[in-house]
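Sequence, please.
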């Protein structure tokens, strides 16, 4: 389901919908051609009419007005805007379950606004890096954090169409950020993340190492000339790498900082990254899933990716985890297991995923936590990084473009970017960086 098709739940954001940002706004032309077309569309589509009224009534309630005709007066009355702003902060604070006085609520709402800006910033920093000048946020919007001011900008004809669209977009992303924060507070995610790290340090990693101590190693690999899949890999220590000749064609040298775990008298190395998905990444996931409820769409808040030398070590690591959980006082249950390390085809369900992906993936429940585990061998990890069609950089491009998120956030009539062409150029660009960088 695409976020920009007829089943999109983000009714207010659609540039081909009833709340599209037009070139001009005129409140004194009640029977304009545009208004007549909108009325006709609502008359023939009951569901669309219901969605329209829901968005309109929410807007009226936030501004404390009864009709669009009252908006110009509110725009021109600074004292009235301030009064409505304070009321709007309280309403939004109650919506997101925030406690405290007005200053505390304002601070938290402004944090949501910062997350909204961070969503665009995250795209500018990587997936759309060559187009950063095209999509940068207007100064007037980036500096504005007052929800009433932003909402009034949407209906203020003194502002250019791009600025009015970005004001609306910021409000929509702010709402998602607020829902995410509410969910995190309800699930106590910060304390759970701390508890998970403590579990790893106390029960999983070798007690012979200090907390945070890592062993530097390199994966020296050769790759196929056709699809750049890994054909051979060797683990080298840092000293050996110092004396290697320059990396040749179809070769890579990949740094891995490895920990150790102890099994049956043997110390086994494992490269591990642990992450708590940040708010901007969660907002993007909600958009990709065409969903506003974080409890439904974001099931991988806590995650661990591990890379081991071979499948035998993978099996030992999983068993070590379950035994460590018992030592910590909880049984560990593995759910939604998918194992394609032996070459089985991966059943891709997410937009942009490749059926050729090789990994062991599952969710582990223990001690009140639910953590996503993705486990690789050295070759499958290198394919995850570098193979054509399956590399994570390509996947990141495909899932954002193919889900409609890019067209949703940067509609063509405002940003003049053909997202299909941008998609293809960015995949080529990432391939060049991977294979020649």
């Amino acid at each position: 389901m695409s976020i920009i098709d007829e089943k999109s739940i983000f009714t207010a954001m659609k540039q081909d919908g009833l709340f599209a940002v037009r070139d001009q706004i005129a409140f004194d032309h009640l029977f304009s051609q545009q208004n007549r077309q909108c009325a006709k569309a609502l008359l023939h589509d009951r569901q669309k009419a219901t969605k329209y009224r829901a968005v309109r009534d929410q807007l009226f309630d936030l501004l404390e007005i009864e009709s669009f005709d009252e908006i110009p007066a509110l725009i021109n009355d600074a004292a009235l805007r301030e009064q409505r702003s304070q009321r709007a902060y309280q309403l939004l604070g109650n919506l997101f379950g925030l406690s405290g006085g007005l200053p505390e609520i304002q601070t938290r709402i402004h944090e949501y606004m910062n997350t909204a800006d961070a969503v665009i910033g995250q795209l500018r920093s990587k997936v759309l890096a060559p187009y950063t000048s095209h999509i940068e946020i207007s100064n007037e919007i980036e500096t504005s954090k007052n929800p009433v001011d932003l909402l009034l900008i949407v209906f203020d004809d003194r502002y250019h169409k791009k600025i009015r669209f970005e004001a609306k977009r910021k409000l929509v992303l702010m709402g998602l950020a607020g829902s995410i924060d509410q969910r995190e507070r309800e699930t106590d995610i910060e304390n759970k993340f701390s508890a998970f790290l403590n579990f790893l340090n106390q029960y999983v990693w070798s007690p012979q190492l200090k907390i945070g101590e890592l062993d530097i190693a390199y994966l020296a690999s050769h790759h196929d000339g056709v699809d750049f899949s890994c054909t051979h890999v060797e683990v080298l220590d840092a000293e050996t790498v110092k004396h290697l000749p320059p990396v040749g064609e179809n070769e890579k040298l990949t740094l891995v900082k490895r920990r150790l775990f102890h099994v049956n008298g043997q110390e086994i190395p494992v490269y591990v990254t642990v992450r708590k998905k940040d708010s901007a990444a969660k907002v993007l996931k909600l958009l990709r899933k065409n969903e506003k409820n974080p409890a439904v769409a974001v099931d991988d808040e806590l995650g661990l990716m591990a890379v081991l030398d071979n499948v035998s070590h993978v099996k030992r690591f999983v068993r070590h985890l379950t035994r460590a959980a018992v030592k910590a006082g909880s049984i560990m249950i593995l759910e939604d297991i998918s194992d394609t390390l032996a070459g089985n085809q991966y059943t891709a369900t997410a937009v942009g995923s490749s059926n050729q992906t090789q990994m062991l993936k599952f969710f582990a429940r223990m001690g009140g936590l639910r953590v996503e585990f993705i486990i690789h061998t050295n070759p499958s990890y290198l394919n995850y990084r570098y193979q054509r069609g399956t590399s994570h950089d390509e996947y990141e491009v495909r899932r954002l473009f193919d889900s409609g998120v890019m067209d949703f956030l940067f509609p063509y009539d405002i940003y003049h970017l053909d997202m299909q062409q941008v998609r293809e150029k960015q995949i080529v660009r990432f391939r060049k960086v991977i294979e020649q960088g």
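The CA atoms of residues 127 and 426 lie 7 Å apart.
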